[in-house]
Amino acid sequence: MHISDPAVPPKATRQRDAERTRTALLDAAQTLFSTRGFANTGVREVAELAGANPALVIRYFGSKEGLFRATLERVSISGLLSGERRRFGANLMAAVFDNPDASGPLAMMMLSAADPAAHAASVEFLQTKLIAPLARWLGAPDGKGRAARISVLWTGFLTNWKLLPIQPLDKAAHLASTRRWLEAATQAIVDEGEA
Is residue 123 helix, strand or coil? Predict the structure, then answer.
């Protein structure tokens, strides 16, 4: 029988910070999924990069697919949709150019397209979390079509700027003129609905 000495305080137990660990796992997953894809990223690698126990990936996300979905879910356009309509092109431009991780979700989706589960998650995310809210915000006429055109425009740009870079976009002068064009083209699609 063990009797504790009341003069000796009990050892402090290290409290886990679940939210910090969850965030570290999501950050690590985004890094690995956006550079290696879904099939080439393992749960153990994500946990190791995050400095966490691999069992926590399953505990917090259920599976590697759940982790992939949760990583995509971090992307939100609500901030852009709460801004002024007449500044949407400029605000989107700033959000992308001022964020070094802007192409991360697109890279994740492209590199994971060969895996059926990751592909399905990517398509669902694109439709429900990006296209549908943007279409509702754009409204009539043809909000869905206009949202799709903005997606095509930006997916093409991010692909050719970050994922499959083309030379004209690696020069500051060309990138600046492309940035002005992209802002104007995006805003023109938004403004199609204005009377």
Answer: helix
